[in-house]
Design a protein that fits this description.
4 domains, 3-stranded parallel β-sheet, two-stranded antiparallel ribbon, disordered C terminus
């Protein structure tokens, strides 16, 4: 039958198969006359292949048959998670194969694969069945809450360690003549270093700043207790390190008396105390104004809408200069605390380290609340002021007009921060 069709194909074109392409479809070429003399075994097999395979809609396998064998590929380096090699049973399953497993993607090594972590990771190798299985110990903390806690803790500790060390040089070293210049400079540098250390994660370093950002809906309210704990604990540890460093100098200066007030008072190294002629109300107003300026200036520095945004690399320098200016201007009344953690935690440490209860009972308990309450109120007021100064223009073109609608639950009746809408309000372009 096939031979008869081939011999009588003077009008109908011959059908051929294009070989070398995966799943190729049959093509029709120019007609050719097939005679018994030139119809060899190869052409006969090809015609049989065409009529039995392609005309029935089956898949062509010529591409696989005619393909040249590829050269042997080098050992494959695939990626797997370090957790894939936690147990010795899993490592024994690796075998002696040439393949290697590297990186940090979630996949267990297959048989014949050895885990090779990246160069930046710490290594621990185990020789099993002739193959070396290498485990990685990555020191990076994956939990963001733990990272933020550690960042705030270390940043606040560095801030208190440098700042209180400057005060120890001034007070315990009997260098009061340079206090007006060295004190602000030292605290400005302390802020620069602390923000540089913790700036990649958080760098609030101040409970008043954390609360003000949460009140402006720029920071999750649920994280406020975590940040408070890290900041107060970091300040306590920083004060303890200062005491350990300058213990002998403090003992030499105050003769071991651990005085809170007087000419040989050394409690001012760690906490803030007002001058005798300055009233508590004046100290409170001083802190509300100073911390309000701190919050307002910090918001302006970090706000991308202000002058197109100050580069983040400049934030530590700008914040350090800001603190330096505030201490230059507000240190006369009560040493310008500006930070509840900077005052309360070292104050608690001085009480535990041998100073008298006067650290808290000064003025019949009528001052200890000022460095705590004043900065919180001032920071919130400063944040409100900077938020109110960034309202959107009232007159907008029709093309940019927005329609706000409520999604979800009911909204509060009053919006205290109009430039930052409530998260349950969405904007839709008209």
């Amino acid at each position: 039958m096939l031979r008869q069709i081939a011999l009588t194909s003077k009008v109908a074109p011959a059908v051929t198969c294009v070989v070398g392409a995966h799943f190729s479809a049959p093509q029709f070429v120019a007609p050719s006359v097939a005679t018994p003399s030139n119809l060899g075994n190869q052409k006969r097999k090809r015609l049989q292949h065409v009529f039995k395979r392609h005309l029935r809609g089956a898949i062509c396998c010529d591409a696989f048959k005619s393909r040249k064998p590829k050269a042997k590929a080098p050992p494959t380096r695939v990626q797997a998670a370090p957790s894939a090699l936690k147990s010795s049973c899993q490592m024994r399953a690796l075998g002696n194969g040439p393949s290697a497993v590297e990186g940090a993607r979630d996949r267990k090594p297959a048989a014949g694969e050895v885990y090779l972590p990246r160069n930046s990771e710490r290594l621990e190798s185990v020789q099993i069945c002739g193959a070396t299985a290498t485990k990685s110990f990555n020191m990076k903390i994956q939990n963001p809450l733990i990272r933020e806690f550690i960042s705030e803790f270390i940043g606040t500790m560095v801030l208190i360690l440098i700042g209180d060390s400057v005060l120890a040089v001034i007070i315990a070293g009997d260098n009061e003549s340079i206090a007006a210049v060295v004190g602000p400079l030292g605290w400005g540098v302390a802020i620069f270093v602390a923000v540089s250390v913790a700036g990649g994660v958080s760098a609030h370093l101040n409970p008043a700043v954390t609360l003000s950002l949460a009140s402006a809906r720029k920071f999750p309210l649920a994280k406020v207790p975590l940040y408070f704990a890290a900041q107060y604990l970091g300040a306590f540890v920083g004060a303890a390190l200062v005491f350990i460093t300058y213990r002998d100098q403090i003992a030499h200066f105050d003769k071991g008396q651990r005085m809170v007030t007087g000419k040989t008072a050394t409690a001012g190294i760690f906490a803030t105390y007002p001058k005798e002629h300055v009233s508590t109300l004046t100290c409170f107003i001083d802190q509300v104004i100073a911390t309000g300026l701190l919050s307002l200036t910090a918001e302006a520095i970090t706000d991308e809408r202000n002058f197109g945004g100050i580069p983040k690399q400049m934030h530590p320098i700008c914040l350090g200069l800001m603190i330096m200016a505030l201490i230059f201007g507000f240190a006369n009344n009560c040493m310008c605390p500006l930070n509840p953690a900077r005052d309360l935690s070292p104050r608690i440490f001085t009480l535990l380290a041998g100073w008298s209860t006067e650290t808290f009972t000064l003025r019949n308990w009528n001052y200890v609340w000022v460095p705590i309450v004043g900065p919180h109120i001032g920071a919130i007021l400063g944040c409100v002021a900077v938020q109110g100064g960034h309202r959107r223009p009232l007159a907008q073109p029709a093309a940019t007009r927005r329609l706000q609608y409520v999604s979800g639950r009911a909204l509060p009746a009053v919006f205290f921060f109009p430039s930052h809408p409530h998260p349950r309000i969405r904007s839709v372009a008209l």
